[in-house]
Amino acid sequence: MDATTFDALFERVSNWGRWGANDQRGTLNLLDDGRRLEATAAARSGQVVSLAHDLDTVSGPDNGRPALHYMTQQADVGGGEPRVNTDFVGFDFHGKSVTHLDALCHCSFRGRLYNGVGSADSVDSRGGHFGTVDQLRDGVVARGVLIDLPRAAGVGWLEPGTAAGPDDLVAALAAQGTERRPGDVVLVRTGHRRRRAELGAWDPSNLSAGLAPEAMAWLHATDTVVLGSDGDSDARPSGVDGVESPIHALALTAMGMPLIDNLNLEDAAVACSAAGRWDFLFVLAPLRIPGGTGSPVNPLAIL
Amino acid sequence: MDATTFDALFERVSNWGRWGANDQRGTLNLLDDGRRLEATAAARSGQVVSLAHDLDTVSGPDNGRPALHYMTQQADVGGGEPRVNTDFVGFDFHGKSVTHLDALCHCSFRGRLYNGVGSADSVDSRGGHFGTVDQLRDGVVARGVLIDLPRAAGVGWLEPGTAAGPDDLVAALAAQGTERRPGDVVLVRTGHRRRRAELGAWDPSNLSAGLAPEAMAWLHATDTVVLGSDGDSDARPSGVDGVESPIHALALTAMGMPLIDNLNLEDAAVACSAAGRWDFLFVLAPLRIPGGTGSPVNPLAIL
Amino acid sequence: MDATTFDALFERVSNWGRWGANDQRGTLNLLDDGRRLEATAAARSGQVVSLAHDLDTVSGPDNGRPALHYMTQQADVGGGEPRVNTDFVGFDFHGKSVTHLDALCHCSFRGRLYNGVGSADSVDSRGGHFGTVDQLRDGVVARGVLIDLPRAAGVGWLEPGTAAGPDDLVAALAAQGTERRPGDVVLVRTGHRRRRAELGAWDPSNLSAGLAPEAMAWLHATDTVVLGSDGDSDARPSGVDGVESPIHALALTAMGMPLIDNLNLEDAAVACSAAGRWDFLFVLAPLRIPGGTGSPVNPLAIL
Amino acid sequence: MDATTFDALFERVSNWGRWGANDQRGTLNLLDDGRRLEATAAARSGQVVSLAHDLDTVSGPDNGRPALHYMTQQADVGGGEPRVNTDFVGFDFHGKSVTHLDALCHCSFRGRLYNGVGSADSVDSRGGHFGTVDQLRDGVVARGVLIDLPRAAGVGWLEPGTAAGPDDLVAALAAQGTERRPGDVVLVRTGHRRRRAELGAWDPSNLSAGLAPEAMAWLHATDTVVLGSDGDSDARPSGVDGVESPIHALALTAMGMPLIDNLNLEDAAVACSAAGRWDFLFVLAPLRIPGGTGSPVNPLAIL
């Protein structure tokens, strides 16, 4: 895709100004109490599946800044009763390992964040002041829809480098018999982590399965609230001249739609297949990090 | 309360062996798909309220180990497009500031964890091997009940040092018109944070409002799944000879019931009062920290 | 001191251009192999005294961002022999607690660093590119001179708020019988830590003993290489209109002279007094932190 | 080497009891003011060479727990003048990357530390209480001797797996014309980092050049104070039945001799060769980490 075509797509999916010149919530505006209440009806069995991976403290090709986990005290010290075991955790969470949310201020495209705000004006050395994770303090409670691309394609996983377009998404939904609705959280399974489990880790920075840019037009037209994937939603190489992560630019910057990266969709895929339905009550509760660009998270699918 | 009386209470509320000699999930066993599905019916408006505080990076009397939040990269570096703003967060989260979950392995009473397992045998310098936060990987989805003690007492807050007994809890529920059910998550508001907001921070290690030990017998008898509070549930001074944190010992060690400390119940109190009901769908999703003793969290009340 | 007078003093002590337009080593240029070799002769007994404090992991009025120290492994884990005990340390080291070096890029005055370089052009979110601690990779080996102001004044300490001028420094040197030489590291004792030990910690951000701005002219004229103090060298309130830390601005920005803050000069004061001389071989070896603005340090006085 | 032979060697080089049953300083006892003063005479030109590497924040085969370096503030925030650039550094410093000191409590052999003290009794979850880095608070000031093994062997580096015995050390010293004296710090260059620079990083945990166990008898007989290397002094595979790191066990546990791992000896090798002498004033100043098992360091060779 050449730069001109990408720019036109950026304009087409842009939500700049849609909810006001000062809006910093983006597609979260698509949710209201009514839609949240409706979403609770998507829970029909009460089964819960975590959509996160265990935090990984071991470095590797896709985990260059491993999470920190240290005991800070054990019950071997302290005089009284009871005694405590305590620990420290630390995360440089963006990257290819930690299951995390990207807030809107995470992604600057040509110096701009969502709604046209300047990145340098909105994020300083102490944190962000616009489009931060604070906007998600009350979490995301919505109907979640899993789109299982490898299942539809009858493969174990999409090979790294594959970019799924809108037709692929629509076809997979049809194969599943899953309806899309405005206000959905859409979770796209590429099989990234199944491949990793079977073949070992690799560096997905330059080679990953994800979405084709055109897919964002469909997500925009269908009023998607949040997009998540078992990779980071971007296919690489991106196929777009001069844009390394077009999905990030289109989602976070143009649409104002948060992303969830590095989801664990393996357990959910099994559960959805067993249940014969791929929609559920989705709950995400980012940590309340003032000025944060995102958060490590453990999203839940309540079937 | 003398030691003998406390020991008898410990025995009375103990769940050791109740779900098998090897059980490490404790009161989470009270939840099943059916109860979770029922709990979704407690959401009746779709309003969501965060039950966490903003993470606090500034040290103070109740925050001796402040949370770390550092920018790790801004859009001022990097060659391609888009560019990113990223950050690091770190938490020594137990204590009196961070809203956090205590997993069962957090609390050792006389060398024992829940189910009689030795603390030194179950927690080493790399983390825990029993009763860790891993047991809560699929979160807690349950009916939540807020017990607003200051509201029932007609005061702004319970003075630090106050210990609420079972009669206080029952009376407050009656005043609210709230029914208790097996499988509930019980959240006890003492007004701790309202006092802090109005009078300033203090060190609650030695002076705090919370529950009287006898209240645990009621929580046990009513099959409570998780207990949370705007303090850490313990009143101090504890009033129990030789036991500084009797609620922690009774909940975590005897009952195998996780605790949530330092909740933000101010917004929920307002919302519940406005709605005229104090029950809701409660969702908690701890981070998946292998071997962790707990997790910073942002629990949600979905009214 | 009004702004005009301060600006004139800034010009008077400025070393901008003195060692070339591209220089980023500042007063370190005053040291060469010859002066270092001469400095070794200042060691006359072989007694060594640490000039650092123990790192403090407990927060307090002068330690709002306490150092982190966690065990990462103990000999309770691991299969083979030998087994190891290991730990993690972390420092947000600038501030009033950690004994640390300020590299030149630490201090921006009206947007400029030493030699007129723009701060925003030289320090980005990944670290500094000019005047960083890398310039001190080979340490500072020099003759050190302790100026013990409370000793000369016959007091336990200078009261916070006191600003010592050039006459005070010269008089204290004369009382000690200590000669000043070009290329010296000058360490100024105010008794800050003795006061802290006796009266308890306070927040020195707004109330501290240190140097008067005029003292910098003397340090400049005498070709001082590094200035250190048991406070952070600045007296506060500063007495300079619109400048909160004039010594930092004059030393780091104008002169290009590194500072060492929060030194432990109590042990050295005792040792020097016992030896009857206040000069010694001084060795400082900052950690090699690429792009760092300074380093926690443990400077040594070798008498 | 079989276990019996190793045990006999352990006994032969043991300093347990040599400086008293309660001693925790080990070979540091070999230094006194007189020897330190003599050591200053080893500085004959005033040239200083850092013996540390730059801290490495990028993970790799020999850097699984990369150092943390984050800006905590830049001059873009703050209202007054001057403004500051500040940063955070963190180290899980043991391992194969950071230049660091091993204090005696780092190494437990069959449950015992130096002088026969139990590791579990001396190190708890808060830190060590015996043989910690506190014992080195006044640093190590000594005559340093570089033994350049690749130079003597006429090779670029010793191949990983090579174990240098006492004859190799003595021969290299003779080739250099360097005399050994009691109280020396001995630095052994294997060329580890030159190999790394030319061939790329590898995991030295299982394949490294170092010393043969017998070399420790010579270091013991010659009253060596500290041993350092560009690896971690251990050759691997170790060649000793059931002992993975025999040099660590013999040095730290038996002899009570601190180790310095991951030294940068490349610059020093060039400087010593140019100077035609391989001895110098050596200064090491570990950070004052209470209860620490070691410290990241930047040792200096003052030629």
Would you mind describing this structure in some detail?
The structure is a homotetramer of 303-residue chains. By secondary structure, chain A is of the alpha/beta class. Chain A has helices at 3-13, 33-40, 119-122, 149-153, 166-176, 192-199, 215-221, 246-255, 266-275; strands at 48-50, 68-73, 83-84, 86-91, 100-102, 107-108, 123-124, 127-128, 140-148, 163-164, 185-189, 210-211, 226-229, 259-261, 279-284, 294-296, 300-302. Chain A has a single domain, classed as Putative cyclase (Glucose Oxidase, domain 1), CATH 3.50.30. In chain A, strand 7 and strand 8 (127-128) form a beta hairpin. In chain A, strands 1-17-15-9-11-13-14-5-16 form a 9-stranded mixed sheet, with helices on both faces. The two termini of chain A are 38 Å apart. The first copy, chain A, has 9 helices and 17 strands. The first copy, chain A, is 24% helix and 21% strand. At the C-D interface, helix 2, strand 1, strand 2, strand 3 and strand 4 of C face helix 2, strand 1, strand 2, strand 3 and strand 4 of D. Chains A, B, C, D: This is Cyclase family protein.
The name of the CATH topology of chain A is Glucose Oxidase, domain 1
Strand order of the largest sheet of chain A: 1-17-15-9-11-13-14-5-16
Quaternary structure annotation: homotetramer
Can you summarize the main beta sheet of chain A?
9 strands, mixed
Count of distinct strands of chain A: 17
The number of helical elements of chain A comes to: 9
What string gives the helices and strands of chain A in order? HHEEEEEEHEEEHEHEHEHEHEHEEE
Largest interface: which pair?
A: C-D, 94 and 94 residues
Work out the strand percent of chain A. 15-25%
In CATH, what is the class of chain A? Alpha Beta
CATH architecture of chain A: 3-Layer(bba) Sandwich
Number of domains of chain A: 1
Instruction: Report mean pLDDT of chain A, rounded to a whole number.
Output: 97
Rg of chain A, nearest Å: 19 Å
